[in-house]
Amino acid sequence: RRRPGDRRRHALGGRAGTVTAMPVAISWSAGKDSYLALLQARAAGLDVRRFVTLCEPDGHSKSHALPPALIAAQVAALGGHWQPVLVPPGGYAAAFDASLARLRADGIHSMVFGDIDLQAHRDWLEPACRRAGLQPVFPLWGRDRRGLAAEVIARGIRARVVCVDLGRLDASFCGADYNAALIARLPPGVCPAGEDGEFHTLVLHGPGMAAPLRVVDGPQRRVVTQPPWQPTTLLFQLLSLAEA
After folding, report:
1. d(CA 186, CA 37)
2. 50 and 25 in contact (C-beta within 8 Å)?
C-alpha cells in the first residue's frame, strides 16, 4: 500500500526516500529538458532554488558552450541562484562530486535532473548523489521522447538549437528555433528530444520566466571531439546577451 508521499515520488522518478520540502537544486544546462524538469518539479511542490551548471575553465557551459552572463540572466529570470562549477581538464567527476558536497553543506537535500531514459547516465548520477547525501529526482524519467518534445512546444517554451552533431544533422539545424516545423524535418533515427546528443538547445522564454532572454547571434564554430567522446564534429551557434 502506498504511503502519502509515494505518488509524488513516483511521478518525479525518485527511488528511495520521500521528496523533501527543503530547498532543492537542479542540474541546469539552460536547455529545454532542464526547463521542463524544472516546471514539473515546481508543479509537484519542490522549492527549486539552486541551478548548477558544469562549465569549461573559461566559464562557458559544457555541451552548450553558453557564456556565463547569458545563463546567469536566464536563472535570475526564473527566480533562482546560479552555481557555475568550473571543471579543470580531466576533472569532471571530481568537480561534480565537489559541487554536490557544497549543496549538501548549504542545506540542500535533493537534486533534480532532466534525464529521460539513458540508464547508464542515471546509474552514474544516483551513486554520486548518495555519496553526497542528496536525493536524486528525475521528473522526465521514462516518458516518451516524442511526447516530451511535443510538451515543450505545447507549454510555450521557446528555445533555439545552439549545437548540432554534424554526423547526424546538417548545419541548417544549428541556430534554428526548436518548434514543430524543426521536429518534422528531423532525419529518420534522430531523437526529437535530442536525448542521444544529436543537438542541444537554449531556452529563451517560457512559463515562470520573468522576461525573455534577448540574445545576439555571434559566429558559428566547429569543434572536433576528442577521446573519450566518439569522433564527430560539433557545430555551435555562439550567442551573447544583448545589451539593455
Report:
1. 23
2. yes
Spatial distance between the Cα atoms of 65 and 165, rounded to a whole number of angstroms = 14
Q: Which amino acid is at 142?
A: G
Beta strands in the chain (DSSP E): 23-27, 47-55, 81-86, 110-112, 135-137, 158-165, 177-178, 199-205, 215-224, 233-241
The pLDDT tens digits of the residues spanning 196-225 come to: 999 999 999 999 999 999 999 999 999 998
Global pTM value: 0.90
- What is the length of the chain? 244
- Ramachandran region of residue 152, left (φ > 0), alpha (ψ -120 to 50) or beta? alpha
β-sheet bridge partners, residue 161: 201
Distance of CA 231 to the CA centre of its chain: 23
Query: Measured between alpha carbons, how far is 52 from 63 in angstroms, rounded to an integer?
Result: 14
84: left (phi over 0), alpha (psi -120 to 50) or beta: beta
Chain centroid offset of residue 37 CA:
8
7, 31 contact by CB (below 8 A): no
